[in-house]
Design brief:
The complex is a heterodimer of chains A (338) and B (291). Chain A contains 16 helices and no strands. Chain A has helices at 5-8, 12-19, 29-40, 45-67, 76-91, 98-120, 125-145, 147-150, 176-198, 200-210, 212-217, 222-248, 258-271, 278-296, 298-315, 319-331. In chain B, helix 2 crosses helix 8 and helix 5 packs across helix 6 (167-177). The longest helix of chain B is centred in the N-terminal third of the chain and has 34 residues, at 2-35. Chain B starts with a helix and ends in an 11-residue tail after the last helix. The chains are: A mainly alpha (338), B mainly alpha (291).
């Protein structure tokens, strides 16, 4: 124990804690790459847009799964809620301004997250898993049934989305505007999540994940924190869904499906969950692998994906980033505590 | 009287579907209750069993009943190997790892079956004595559905006796209720689990074959019905044979009736009901809190 208050700040643990959230030298790299992609591959911007939206969606999942430790299979419920908010408002001609549309999508998704989170997060384990799955399936069925508003199985297409800032048109054939718009939204959301996870709130989420009982014992409002985290994550997933609907100018039932929820889970785990950049690495690796493997043979992709999941679950629980970190720790000589 | 006949035929159809759900899900319930292992690959074992049975009949000309036995044995043996080699490494892992591992396994099963057999629906030829209609006094009904109900009752009685009256059954019940205590009393949990896991997967295989008439049989089977199997287990409570039985009947009849009378919103209703039920009783209708 250090006697005076001044020396607390010099304590190695305090230095490590204070330095944990500082900007690393490599952190601008993904953004430089994203912008470089715009100039180098102008023909693949549609594909790039899809990739960036997937990253945003995976980040939303990382918040609940990686940081708060809530195992959910129903994250696509919020993606779909956001997508349908944008889609229905635009199709009926009520609202089609993109940026405020995203805010509305986030609000609706957050409301769904808050409503379901308040009741679902009372449970845990298999029950929670089932409840998230059933909530998503219920929303999907509801969207299917209310075909007057949602277009049912066919979904809503050719959504009339207004130009960005009243100037930049969304052209589905040359998605230049969409790409830069998605980069900007992803950046804003990422900065928000990064700030959040390094805040005391984020630390308490990690605490709940690691030892719920102890967090109760130190007086943290565990359920309140979990519900808030679930709601925020739902809002970000809603933004991802909304921007997906805007960029593609259509919505369909697939936005609410188990396929989408499972894919994003796989992407996050592949990259490494509970790490801010896991979503980025996972999405890129997933897309690269799927491209490579489905070229060999369509079914090989599913086989390879299955094998990958088994291997990750058995041997590499922290994904690609975990492997890199472990390798870096081996290579680097042990640092003196200072 | 027409209404009465209608209700009777609806009940018969629902109960028959419930029996299939029970036969497939019972193994999942016991293994989840015993080890707390979230095994999403269970539907995959049912699918593999269905294929083993259908292919044995088609290519080797095996009769229906021996083919069922064959499917049970093959899948039980294969799952015992998987359990020893892979599953057992993840008993102490987090739920997420178990979910990922078993989803990966399902993907591999689906892909292998698609490559080896093909993506199309696999017809399963029923023997002549199970085809056609049977006269039940008040109404004519499909013989196979009636046979299915009889088989289901036989199986649940057999399982109930095995669970409540044999030494192994008592060991399983003890381990479900309190694993540590059971272990301290010298019950070999590892062996017990391999045994129940293999048996449960074998039952799933049996269900896959017996239920092919109702559920069809294609590679996507493993994921398509997984939610239903999980609902049955969650509603029935973990590790409870009778609980799963009642839950399966309930879901079977409900689903059948709703699809008939409310073809539009039937499935949504089942999901909504499951959510309400799990919120009211998180451990299922028949489950207890000590798991």
């Amino acid at each position: 124990m250090t006697p005076s208050g001044v020396r607390w700040a010099d304590h190695p643990a305090a230095v490590a804690l204070a330095g944990r959230h500082r900007l690393r030298a490599w952190e601008p790299i993904p953004w430089v790459l994203a912008l470089a992609f715009y100039f180098v591959f102008p023909k693949y911007l549609g594909f790039g847009t899809e990739l960036l939206i997937t990253i945003l969606f995976a980040i939303s999942l990382d918040l609940v799964l990686g940081y708060a430790g809530i195992v959910t299979l129903g994250q696509a419920a919020f993606f779909g809620a956001g997508a349908y908010t944008v889609g229905m408002l635009a199709k009926r001609g009520i609202w089609n301004e993109p940026i405020t549309g995203l805010v509305l999508a986030a609000l609706v998704a957050a409301a769904v997250g808050l409503g379901s989170g308040l009741v679902l997060l009372r449970t845990g384990g298999l029950t929670l898993l089932m409840l998230t799955l059933c909530t998503m399936a219920l929303l999907e069925e509801a969207a299917n049934l209310a075909h007057e508003y949602t277009g049912g199985f066919d979904g809503l297409d050719s959504l009339p989305i207004a130009p960005l800032f009243g100037v930049f048109e969304f052209n589905p054939l040359y998605p230049k505007t969409q790409y830069l718009y998605v980069v900007a939204v992803l950046f804003v959301c990422f900065v928000f999540v990064r700030t959040l996870v390094y805040s005391p709130f984020g630390q308490s989420l990690t605490g709940i994940r690691e030892n719920t009982l102890r967090m109760h014992a130190v007086g943290a409002p565990v359920r309140g924190r979990l519900v808030l985290c679930y709601t925020l994550s739902a809002a970000i997933a809603g933004v991802a869904g909304g921007i997906w609907a805007q960029a593609n100018a259509y919505v369909n039932l697939g936005t609410l499906g188990l396929d989408r929820a499972a894919t994003v889970l796989i992407i996050l785990v592949l990259g490494g969950y509970g790490r801010l950049y896991g979503a980025f690495v996972g999405a890129v690796a997933y897309v690269a692998l799927s491209h490579f493997l489905s070229k060999i043979y369509p079914t090989a992709w599913q086989l390879g994906l299955g094998l990958l999941l088994v291997v990750i679950a058995l041997f590499a629980r922290n994904g690609i980033l975990g492997i890199i970190e472990a390798a870096a720790r081996r290579l680097r000589p042990p640092r003196a505590a200072s | 009287m027409i209404f009465g006949v209608d209700v009777a035929s609806m009940l018969l159809g629902g109960v028959a579907a419930g029996m299939v759900l029970f036969i497939v899900s019972v193994g999942l319930s016991v293994t989840m209750g015993l080890m707390g292992f979230v095994n999403l690959a269970h539907g995959g074992f049912a699918m593999l069993g269905g294929y083993a049975i259908a292919l044995a009949m088609k290519h080797w000309g095996l009769a229906f009943v021996p083919a069922l036995v064959f499917g049970f044995v093959v899948v039980a043996a294969a799952s015992a190997v998987l359990e020893r080699l892979l599953y057992s490494r993840l008993y102490r892992a987090t739920e997420l790892d178990q979910v990922l591992f078993t989803i990966g396994l399902v993907f591999m099963m689906i892909a292998s079956v698609t490559v080896l057999v093909g993506p199309e629906n696999q017809p399963l030829m029923l023997p002549a004595f199970l085809r056609g209609q049977i006269n039940l006094g008040i109404t004519q009904y499909r013989t196979y559905s009636v046979a299915m109900i009889v088989i289901g009752i036989l199986i649940v009685s057999g399982l109930w006796l095995a669970f409540e009256r044999t030494r192994t059954g008592a060991q399983i019940r003890a381990a479900v209720d309190n694993r540590r205590m059971a272990e301290s009393l010298g019950i070999n949990i590892g062996r017990l689990f391999t045994l129940t896991f293999a048996f449960g997967s074998g039952m799933a295989a049996l269900g896959g074959g017996l239920g092919a008439e109702f559920l069809g049989l294609d590679p996507q089977y493993a994921l398509k019905y997984l939610v239903y199997f999980l609902i049955v287990v969650a509603v029935g409570g973990l590790g409870r044979v009778t609980g799963v039985f009642y839950a399966a009947l309930l879901i079977g009849v409900l689903d059948f009736a709703l699809k008939k009378y409310v073809p539009q919103g039937g499935t949504a209703f089942v999901y909504a009901l499951t959510i309400l039920l799990l919120l009211w009783r998180p451990h299922g209708l028949f489950g207890s809190k000590t798991t």
